[in-house]
């Protein structure tokens, strides 16, 4: 199983789609600093006010990364070849799940923390929030990201297609977020 995880990591590092998604969503998060007028805020002010408004970007990026990793090999029959070489279905599935969870959460955490770290470097932390509580809050955001990743993994595995899984996962995760925001 760990050989499959290593091969998935190798494939993900060289996947142009994942690289483009990371660059685009990083640029969106940095662009939101100027759209929200947050470029002059301290890190604590950004954490208290604007950081919570950008969750739709983080969730969308998570859906893109996880569905690509979990379901891209259904189209070219790589999963069938892995099972023909002696790996069980369970090993093939869990290797993809582990890889997609790690990559999805790490990419989202980097994109989420980049504006906060940038503002803290430029303008300082400030006095409006305790830094240890903020880092605890950011650390605990891993669990909702894992839950959203698991939903995308389930839907992509059922669809057995990365694009169908992407669309269905996007509608389920971001659609429910938008509905809850509007209510």
Walk me through what this model shows.
The protein has 183 residues and is mostly helical. The chain is 80% helix and 0% strand. It is built from nine helices and no strands. The protein has helices spanning 2-13, 16-35, 43-48, 55-71, 78-84, 89-123, 131-140, 142-159, 162-182. The longest helix is centred in the middle third of the chain and has 35 residues, at 89-123. It is elongated, with a radius of gyration of 18 Å. The mean pLDDT is 90.
As a percent range, the share of strand residues is under 5%
Radius of gyration: 18 Å
| Series of secondary-structure elements, N-terminal to C-terminal | HHHHHHHHH
Output the number of helix runs. 9
Roughly what percent helix?
Answer: over 70%
Reported for the largest beta sheet, the result is: none
Alpha-carbon distance between the termini?
A: 44 Å
DSSP summary, beta strand count: 0
């Amino acid at each position: 199983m760990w050989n499959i995880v290593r091969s998935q990591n190798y494939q993900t590092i060289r996947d142009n789609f994942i690289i483009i998604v990371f660059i685009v969503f990083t640029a969106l998060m940095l662009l939101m600093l100027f759209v929200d007028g947050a470029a002059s805020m301290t890190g604590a002010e950004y954490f208290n006010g604007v950081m919570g408004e950008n969750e739709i970007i983080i969730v969308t990026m998570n859906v893109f990364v996880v569905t690509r990793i979990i379901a891209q090999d259904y189209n070219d029959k790589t999963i069938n070849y892995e099972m023909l070489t002696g790996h069980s279905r369970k090993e093939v599935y869990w290797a993809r799940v582990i890889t997609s969870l790690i990559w999805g959460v790490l990419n989202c955490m980097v994109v989420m923390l980049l504006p906060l770290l940038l503002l803290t470097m430029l303008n300082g932390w400030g006095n409006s929030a305790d830094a240890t509580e903020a880092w605890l809050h950011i650390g605990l955001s891993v669990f909702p990201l894992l839950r959203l990743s698991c939903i995308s993994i389930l839907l992509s595995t059922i669809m057995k297609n990365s694009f169908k899984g992407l669309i269905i996962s996007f509608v389920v995760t971001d659609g429910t977020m938008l509905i809850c925001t509007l209510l």
